[in-house]
Amino acid sequence: MAKDKYKPVCTFDELQGVSYLTRNIQYKKQPTSAILFVYEGTPYAYANHCMHMHRPLNCEQDAIFDETGKYLRCSMHGFIFDPKTGECQSPVCLGQRLQALRLEDIEGTLFFAEKHLTLVE
Length: 121
Ligand code: FES
Known about the structure:
Elements: E1 10-11, H1 12-16, E2 21-27, E3 30-39, E4 42-47, E5 72-73, E6 80-81, E7 103-106, E8 109-112, E9 117-119
Antiparallel strand pairs: 1-8, 2-3, 2-9, 3-4, 5-6, 7-8
Bound molecules: FE2/S2 (inorganic) cluster.
């Protein structure tokens, strides 16, 4: 990846120091946002879009994890998701996945590594 072609999202250290970050993005020509977090030492990013009723996971609370810290949780109706795969664990949407967004770590700085994604300032 040509580093100068992409804008940095954040540093790994910055992400590790918070529960999560959001970034405004354009993905597949649609304005949306991304959630980013570190889980078990690995950075992850997903489109911030719950498939249940099309809300951001943090729409009702400033949080994307449940109280155990083991699952992502949509604050609208409480559906939970595997943080490593984005797979919904709640019966209504069981097996459906959040849209994963690939990240690339270049010397401690994270970049989106998705063809159809633009970071919006
Ligand atoms: S909109 Fe996410 S659980 Fe209903």
